[in-house]
Amino acid sequence: MLPFTALKNKSLTAHITASFCILSAVLLFPINHSSTEQALHQHHQISEKSALNQSDAEQQISIRHTLSDPLNDAVDVYTVEIEEAFPFERQIRRVASEVEIDESLVYAVTKAESSFRSGVQSHAGAIGLMQVIASAAGRDAYYRLHKKRATPTLAQLKDPYTNLQLGSTYLKLLEEHHFGHITDEKLKQMLVLAAYNWGPVNVKRKLLAKNPPRNAEEMKWVLWTKAPRETYSYVNKVLKYQNQFSQFEA
């Protein structure tokens, strides 16, 4: 048996230890609570960033080109400032009438190709609003227009009206000469756009030669599995733009 003094000291020590534990718990609780709040806040921020990363990529791209994007710039003032809302509206309307092609299609291809920048030139040599290559589409379109073989000059391709005329004529040529036998209009348009981006020879050999698509839905799958990703994206992009522009046609 322990002496009374020893028992008293042991009891006092236990009391002090218990008191210290309680005090520590009280002091640490706000810290732990604060840490929990901070962790929740960080988790919320991460969730917000993930949601932003999953947003429509096309919308992010259009924001970078607001100065040349009629659908994001000036739709609200469309009835008042039509020339600002639709760049090259007068030239595109004239060309669409002359070539007998859908005006919204010309707008859509022009937006997809150059974002309405008439002086732009690609590394592949495509020039102007509809990114016409002089020695390829430019020459074919020029012959269809003027019934003589010649290659458009750099000055001609940088001229907005001439470039739109050549690009639209080439679209018409693709539609009638290369894919005129296609009876499904939606399928035909998708083939035309694929050929404008990838070339008619590639489209015929690699998309139509074996198990050709019978409609637009099958064409989507064929584009995904047999065409370059650029061509697949291009066709879908132009169709999206055309649908938007067609809502504003007179």
From TrEMBL:
Residues 94-208 form the Transglycosylase SLT domain. InterPro entries: Lysozyme-like_dom_sf, Transglycosylase_SLT_dom_1. PANTHER family: MEMBRANE-BOUND LYTIC MUREIN TRANSGLYCOSYLASE C (PTHR37423:SF2), SOLUBLE LYTIC MUREIN TRANSGLYCOSYLASE-RELATED (PTHR37423). Belongs to the transglycosylase Slt family. This is Transglycosylase SLT domain-containing protein. It comes from Alkalimarinus alittae. The lineage of its organism: Bacteria, Pseudomonadati, Pseudomonadota, Gammaproteobacteria, Alteromonadales.
